[in-house]
Design goal:
2 copies of one chain form a homodimer. By secondary structure, chain A is an alpha/beta fold. Chain A contains 11 helices and 13 strands. Chain A has helices at 20-31, 70-78, 92-95, 99-120, 154-173, 199-208, 228-239, 259-270, 282-285, 297-303, 311-322; strands at 11-15, 35-40, 60-64, 82-85, 125-131, 176-182, 184-186, 212-216, 222-223, 225-227, 247-251, 257-258, 274-278. The mean pLDDT of chain A is 96. Chain A binds chain B through residues 96, 99-100, 103, 107-108, 111-112, 115, 136, 146, 148-154, 156-158, 160-161, 164-165, 167-168, 171-172, 286-287, and chain B through 96, 99-100, 103, 107-108, 111-112, 115, 136, 146, 148-154, 156-158, 160-161, 164-165, 167-168, 171-172, 286-287.
Chain lengths: 330, 330
């Protein structure tokens, strides 16, 4: 069991803190007595949702606003010890449709946050959320942090630039930054509005609504699904490291399964739903990355963190979370 | 000798075509009878200079404007076979001072050009100018195209994102793109206003003006200087390849010399100037990349191009070029 007592009374800023991962981090931090500030734009395109912090609303400070607004951010940054930067355009599929918004949110956003920290509070620790989609086609297994990066989406290019900013500000300005590179997170507090990311939640919704779950091809591509609370713990674990200088940490369950098995597990656990196999749409095949076997040795060695929620347990917990509040998420 | 006859009557667009490298490309293309359009903003911060095309002004079309303006670019792109994209913020030093301008020019600019091509003319060939500064600290010698990329400047991060865009648009949309990654270009038509890039020209100016040439440390770091007309030939050679799909080509002389030797060669060739050795400024050491030994095997093998102008000859040609027109460049 990881000890997060060091967060007691630490001043923590979570950008995108009403979203999927940000709110799971906030839920954890409240338990450890951190002083939590959230900035979230509640942009309807993304996963920000006040329901995600309903239980802890009176114990956190929430600013509904754009984290690219320097006048909003300056005073907040001055009063912060640790920043979890989760605000982002989060769909690789949308990134080709809204290339300049993706650039602005996923490059200008983190760059400005780093610049403001450098000016206002260079000792603040910044943990940046990145994605396996910086990698592109998988060319070596298992996927370590030094795997080549050849993104196949603008989302991936911009997340890669975001990573490089954090490495550069550490190398050149000595700032304390780190990068958490996620596989496929899912679970409680994820968005359920569309199928553009976090498919386990989307499939759960389809199953609950009695609609078919479609799988492209044979669904044998390997993926690594990691549960929401495990992801939150990973961010907290990396956030505790005081000497990271732009290091990248893979974050996944460390166990890869076929995409189809994820869908079948949902149907089995929920005892609902029906899977249909359909051909790959032509435009999807080019951006299919290949099997994902994420090495999570580095984060274990550096922080002691490892995933603890199995896929079955995760699906059950996700379903239990959403059952009484589904209408708030769709 | 390379044959560029294939450019006859080809419609070529050069963004940043009044600048250092763009105008050297234009000078070459005029010889081969290409139909040349230049878009250049003549932003006083950068190297765009009408003097660079004075001799060929009546044989080219020049639009003074911002290549990020879609209404300007759309009709031009529709009528173009090959695009050399040279428009950029070109100083890695300035990039930390104007981070958001660098982002806008060096990321949004090329992204928008690719988007416009994808919409208007997906068969256009696009050659993107990149820089050794995408690499950061040199970790293996000689530096091949697959050397790790860990930029130490925002300029480097944004050029890296620019490269990745071109690779992505090739991989996902099948567009015909290529990247030329330059070492240290110098020579005729370079800017001489300040010391932020292309130091051989700057040192030539100092020598001609009787001012001391300062070298940080012992000046023993290796650099690869490549002459303007060789660079232009390299772009033309890569631009002739019809099947590149986002490939990167290193472009350098293939011969590395100590920084100090470059300065000494200028003093020797010009028979003027005086070198002073001074300590490294504190903020420079962190971003010093280490010795540069560029491998140029790939471009030779793929196109037949190799550098032909020695440093001595280049300095002499540069000096001859600037002598009668120095006032137009300072």
């Amino acid at each position: 069991m990881l000890d997060f007592e060091a967060y007691r009374e630490r001043r923590v800023l979570i950008t995108g803190g009403l979203g999927f991962i940000g709110s799971n981090i906030a839920q954890k931090l409240v338990q450890y007595g951190a002083s939590i500030t959230i900035v979230d734009s509640l942009d309807p395109l993304y996963g920000g949702n006040p329901a995600n912090v309903a239980e802890i609303r009176d114990r956190i400070t929430v600013h509904v606003g754009d984290y690219r607004d320097p006048s909003l951010m300056k005073p907040i940054i001055r009063d912060t010890d640790i920043i979890f930067n989760l605000a982002a355009q989060v769909s690789y599929i949308d990134s080709s449709r809204i290339p300049f918004s993706d650039l602005d949110l996923n490059c200008k956003g983190p760059l400005q946050l780093l610049e403001l920290c450098r000016e206002q509070n260079p000792r603040a620790r910044i943990i940046f959320a990145s994605s396996r989609l910086v990698l592109g086609k998988v060319v070596s297994q298992p996927i370590r942090e030094d795997h080549p990066t050849e993104p196949l989406s603008l989302y991936g290019v911009h997340k890669l630039a975001g990573e490089k900013y954090h490495r550069l500000y550490a190398a050149v300005y000595g700032m304390n930054t780190a990068i958490v590179r996620l596989t496929n997170p899912y679970g409680e507090r994820q968005q359920l509005k569309h199928n553009k990311y976090s498919l386990p939640g989307w499939f759960m919704r389809l199953a609950q609504e009695g609609k078919p779950i479609q799988i492209f091809g044979n669904g044998q591509q390997l993926r690594d699904y990691i549960y929401a609370t495990d992801v939150a713990d990973a961010f907290l674990a990396v956030g505790q490291l005081t000497s990271t200088r732009g290091e990248v940490f893979n974050c996944g369950s460390g166990r890869s399964i076929p995409f189809a098995e994820m869908a079948e597990t949902i149907v089995r656990v929920l005892k609902k739903g029906k899977i249909e196999y359909v051909p790959w749409p032509a435009d999807y095949e080019r951006i299919e990355t290949g099997d994902v076997n994420f090495s999570v040795k580095k984060i274990l060695k550096s922080t002691g963190w490892r995933a603890s929620v199995s896929l079955e347990e995760g699906i059950e917990r996700m379903d239990n979370y959403f059952a009484p509040r589904l209408r708030l998420y769709i």
